Every structure is written in structure tokens, then in C-alpha cells.
């Protein structure tokens, strides 16, 4: 059975060559995964609606973002110069995560080849995150009754501070963040469950910590859906990570998360999260580990 995946060409926009965000990774990842043939079924999202965005973001912020009225300080916090293409990109990415979650509810497993913008707040952008696709998706599915309870597992190297704050008053959504403590953001939020890590953890230490928490987390939440942020900035070669996972460690992390969730019959929607390396081919091979782990488990005869 092929993996349901979501992508849109609009995930990639033009940025100056000197810009630190590896925007072309979304195109390169899609190209790499395109060589897998019929192992992946591709779905194209629509952009998130204004009504969906207003479930977590303030009307004033959305007016400024969509209308092009963000001041220089706000643009600097976002990490991007404003453009209409940027607005379209982040709305498509957010719509992509909503679609991924709905595909996961239908098919058991689905992956967005973008997403994980967990630093965006109700009234501001932060750290390359302008709209919080995780929180928008959670609020949307809860509001429509498509799920009664959900869990966000965030294994990006940076704490999901925006998501934690946006869902702090939502008892039906549980937020979990396992992140390097001495890293962005300097001012941490309070997730429902935080696991701060020492810098430089290797595969063994990282996976042991995850194995200790993961089963208890799933049992405690008993969700109808898991949204998994599989950021690869925990890799030892990442410019912004300060963590020590290898390629094999990344694969094993993703395999364990998917298996732990799917073995309980719980649908899983995955997003690729952060990853910052100027070697785009290497970076996208790391992001592809999520798809590789999903495909391996999808093909197992005893998979749920």
C-alpha cells in the first residue's frame, strides 16, 4: 500500500542566495521522493482558509500578514522579507497539514512534505514560522468534530513554544516537546509534557530517552490522532541543532514513533519540521528518512 503524501510546488519560493533558510529543500525533497515511483501517492493541498487561521491567529495579525503591512521588526522576527508569494506559501503549507491529518484519519498514515511551523504565535511570527500549521490543524479538527482528542509529538530540536501557547487552554489537545534545552527559543513555553535534553546527545542516549517516554505519553493521552513533527535538526551535521543524531538514528527515531502510534491503531499525520544544512541533497535525504520509515512499516504484513 503506498504512502499518502502532500506537496505543492508553491511550498518553494524564491529567496536571495545568501538567505540562511534552505527554502529549496521542499522542491529537492519532492524530487528525491519522486524517484520512488508508486510507493507514494501525492495529494495537492488548497491554502488554509481565513476561518481556519483565525482559530489560532488574531485578526489583526492576519490582516497585517496577508495585506503586507508587517513592519520591519515583525519581518525580522519572522526571518523572511514579506512577499505575496510568502503568504501564499505559508497558507499552502498550513492547508497541507490540515489535508495530511484528514488523509491520516482516512488511511491511517499520511505525511506532509513540509510543515512543522511550531514557533508561530497568535499575533506574531518567529523563527521562520509565520502560521502555526500544527495548532491550526488541531483546532480545526477539534472544532469540526473529526477528532475528540489529539496528541502532538514534537521532536524538532527546538521547543514547540508557539504550539504549546496556542493550545494551552485546549484540554482535548496534548502537546509534547523533546528538544535541546540550550537552544532557540531562549524563553521556553510550557508544553503539556516537555523533555529538555543536554546538548550533543548521540543516538543511544536520545533513543533511550524517547523509548522511556513514548509509550506512557500515548497511553496517557489516548488520542484519536497523532500529529508528528519529525524535525531533522537533531542531526549531528545540522547548523542550528547542537544535537548528535546520525542518519541511522534519525531513521530509528521515526520508525519507533510511527510504530508506537500505529501499533495502537491510532492514525498518524507527519510533517518534516526543521532542518538547516546548505547541502540540500544531504538535508533532504534526512527528511526522506521519515518517508522511508513510514513505507517500511506500511509494507509490513502485520502492520495495523
TrEMBL record:
InterPro entries: HDAC_classIV (IPR044150), HDACs (IPR000286), His_deacetylse_dom (IPR023801), His_deacetylse_dom_sf (IPR037138), Ureohydrolase_dom_sf (IPR023696). CDD domains: HDAC_classIV. GO terms for molecular function: histone deacetylase activity; hydrolase activity. Coiled coil: none annotated. SUPFAM superfamilies: Arginase/deacetylase. GO terms for biological process: epigenetic regulation of gene expression. It comes from the Bacteria. It holds the Pfam family Hist_deacetyl. Keywords: Hydrolase. Residues 24-281 form the Histone deacetylase domain. Belongs to the histone deacetylase family. This is Histone deacetylase. It comes from Spiribacter aquaticus.
Amino acid at each position: 500500500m503506498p504512502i499518502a503524501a502532500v506537496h505543492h510546488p508553491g511550498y518553494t519560493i524564491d529567496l536571495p542566495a545568501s538567505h540562511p533558510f534552505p527554502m529549496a529543500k521542499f522542491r529537492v525533497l519532492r524530487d528525491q521522493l519522486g524517484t520512488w515511483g508508486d510507493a507514494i501517492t501525492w495529494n495537492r493541498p488548497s491554502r488554509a482558509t481565513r476561518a481556519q487561521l483565525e482559530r489560532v491567529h488574531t485578526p489583526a495579525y492576519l490582516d497585517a500578514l496577508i495585506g503586507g503591512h508587517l513592519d520591519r521588526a515583525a519581518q525580522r522576527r519572522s526571518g523572511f522579507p514579506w512577499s505575496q508569494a510568502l503568504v501564499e506559501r505559508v497558507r499552502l503549507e498550513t492547508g497541507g497539514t490540515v489535508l495530511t491529518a484528514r488523509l491520516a484519519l482516512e488511511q491511517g498514515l499520511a505525511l506532509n512534505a513540509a510543515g512543522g511551523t511550531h514557533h508561530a504565535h497568535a499575533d506574531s511570527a518567529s523563527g521562520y514560522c509565520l502560521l502555526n500549521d500544527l495548532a491550526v490543524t488541531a483546532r480545526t479538527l477539534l472544532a469540526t468534530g473529526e477528532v475528540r482528542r489529539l496528541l502532538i509529538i514534537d521532536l524538532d530540536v527546538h521547543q514547540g513554544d508557539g504550539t504549546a501557547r496556542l493550545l494551552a487552554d485546549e484540554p482535548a489537545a496534548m502537546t509534547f516537546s523533546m528538544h535541546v534545552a540550550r537552544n532557540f527559543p531562549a524563553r521556553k513555553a510550557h508544553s503539556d509534557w516537555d523533555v529538555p535534553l543536554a546538548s550533543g546527545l548521540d543516538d543511544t542516549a536520545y533513543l533511550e530517552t524517547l523509548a522511556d517516554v513514548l509509550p506512557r505519553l500515548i497511553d496517557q493521552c489516548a488520542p484519536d490522532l497523532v500529529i508528528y513533527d519529525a524535525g531533522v535538526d537533531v542531526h549531528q551535521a545540522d547548523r542550528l541543532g547542537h544535537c548528535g543524531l546520525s542518519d541511522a538514528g534519525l531513521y530509528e527515531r521515526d520508525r519507533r514513533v510511527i510504530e508506537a502510534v500505529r501499533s495502537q491503531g491510532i492514525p498518524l499525520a507527519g510533517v518534516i519540521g526543521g532542518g538547516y544544512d546548505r547541502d540540500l541533497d544531504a538535508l533532504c535525504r534526512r527528511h526522506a528518512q521519515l518517508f522511508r520509515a513510514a513505507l517500511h512499516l506500511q509494507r509490513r504484513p502485520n502492520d495495523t
